[in-house]
Amino acid sequence: MYVLCVDDDLSFLDLEKRMLERHADIIVEVATSVPEALDRLKVRNYDAVISDYHMNGPTGTDLLRFLRNAGNTVPFIILTGKGNDQVALEAMTEGATFFMEKGYDLHLTFAEIASMIRVSVEGALAKRKALEFKTMCDSLCAIGSSVVLVLDRDGRILDCSASAEAIIGYCREDMIGKAFNELIAGRESHDSTAMMEALMANEVAQVVSLEVRRKDGSRIPAMMCTSALQGIGRDRGRAICVIKDVSEQKVMEDNFRATLRLCADLEEVLDEMVAQSSPNQGHPDPKKVS
C-alpha cells in the first residue's frame, strides 16, 4: 500500500515514515506542505493519505476539502497535536475517513495509524469492487432477466433472487444450501470449495460464458458475472454471482451464422450459373477455327 504522509514537522514526518514502513505492506512517501502533497497526488494514486491538521499555510482539512471537491475519494486520516472537537467535526464533515490525536506513546499511535490505513484501504477496495460489480450486473441485466446468487466461502448458495424459478426451474427454497457447481454443466463433480478459492483469488469481477443446468436437466447458454466480497464484517469470504440466460441471443447468433453460410452457398451457385451461361461455354473460339 502506498501512503502519502503530510506534515511540516520534519522530525515527526521522518519518524512516521520509519515506524509505518516497519509494516511490510506499507510504503510511505512524504510531503511537507499541502502544495507539495498536491504535486505528488498528480503523479501517483495513493492508497491512503495521512495529514497533520496544523501546518504553515493551508491545513490538512484544506487538503482534504480540495481532494473531495475534485472527486478524489482516497482514504484520508487527519492527525492533530491535541484534541479539538471542532477540528474533528470539520474533518469528518469534509469527508475524512478517520480523525486521530497524536498521543504521547508514539509506538501505540503509529500502530493505530497502521491499523486505520488497512481498514480504510480495505473499505475503499470493497466500495470500488461493489461499484465495478454493479456496473457489470447492470450490463448483464440490461439485456434480459438474470438470476442473482449469494455464495458462502464453501461455494454453497446462501440466497438467490426470485427469478431463479422462471429461468432455471429452482425455487428459492430449493436453491438455498445447494452447491453452486451443481448448476454449472460439466462441473458438477468439481470441488465447490476449490472453485470458491479460485474465485476469491481474483481481485476483479469475472465474466465468463458457460452452460447452466436447469432443474429438468436441460441446459441453457449463459453469461456469468462473479465477484468476491472481500469487504468488512459478515460479507467477508462471500461472493455474488449473476447468471444471465442468453438463449435468445444465442439463437440470433446461430441464425446469423446460418444466414452467412447460406449467402456463401448462394454465391457459389451463382458463380456456377454465370460460368455455365457464358456465350463461349462449350463452343470453340471462332478466332481459332481455320
Which short descriptors sum up this protein?
alpha/beta; Rossmann fold; 5-stranded parallel sheet; 2 domains; 21% strand; Beta-Lactamase; 5-stranded antiparallel sheet; 290 residues; 43% helix
Text of the CATH class of the largest domain: Alpha Beta
Mean pLDDT: 79
**Based on CA inertia axes, which overall geometry fits?**
elongated
Q: Encode the helix/strand succession as letters.
A: EHEHEHEHEHEEHHHEEEH
Structural class: alpha/beta
- Report the major sheet: 5 strands, parallel
Low-confidence stretches: 231-235
Q: Measured on Cα atoms, how large is the radius of gyration?
A: 31 Å
Task: Note the beta-strand portion.
Answer: 15-25%
> What is the tally of beta strands?
10
CATH architecture of the largest domain: 3-Layer(aba) Sandwich
Q: Span between N and C termini?
A: 93 Å
For the record, the count of structural domains works out to 2
CATH superfamily placement of the largest domain: Response regulator
From the 3D structure, determine the CATH topology of the largest domain. Answer: Rossmann fold
What strand order characterises the main sheet?
2-1-3-4-5
Task: Quickly count the helices.
Answer: 9
